[in-house]
Amino acid sequence: MIGGVLYMGVEMLWRGKTHWTMGVLGGLCFVLIGLLNETRGKRPPLLLQMIEGAFIVTALELAVGLIVNTHLGWNVWDYSDMPFNFLGQITPQFTFAWFFLSAAAVWLEDRTHVVLRDARDEAEKLLKK
């Protein structure tokens, strides 16, 4: 939910509008980026997580774009007028932006784990009293 709300917020700041599908896409991206350091034996370098995050978001943006824009015709976004776009759904410029925004997602997802762990530990202490 955090990722969905933030993704929609970025869209509101950038484009002045958003769509509910962007909340779903953002939430999924946030979870997948968060899993980048959960599924390996050790934490990968932030730079690697940023590269992987950019590709995750770009791939999902393409998949969702082909469904909601091309197949369903909802016209949520159209990058056809941007250089080097692919099917009007993704561009290298936004992949570059997702690279930097992925760092924020990694940091926020990590902090979320810390806050939830601390809250759980505190609740366990209270229950033991």
Characteristics:
single chain, 129 residues, mainly alpha, 4 helices
The secondary-structure class comes to mainly alpha
The number of helical runs is: 4
SSE arrangement, N to C = HHHH
Q: What's the gyration radius in Å?
A: 17 Å
Largest sheet: none
Shape: elongated
- List low-confidence stretches: none
DSSP helix fraction: over 70%
Strand content: under 5%
Taking all residues together, what is the mean pLDDT? 91
Describe this structure in words.
The chain is mainly α. 72% of the residues lie in helices and 0% in strands. The chain has four helices and no strands. Helix 2 runs antiparallel to helix 3 (46-71) and helix 2 packs across helix 4. The longest helix has 37 residues, at 92-128. The mean pLDDT is 91.
Layout: helices, strands, pairs:
Blueprint: H1 2-15, H2 20-35, H3 46-71, H4 92-128
Helix pairs in contact: 1-2, 2-3, 2-4, 3-4
Briefly say what this structure is.
By secondary structure, the protein is mainly alpha-helical. It is built from 4 helices and no strands.
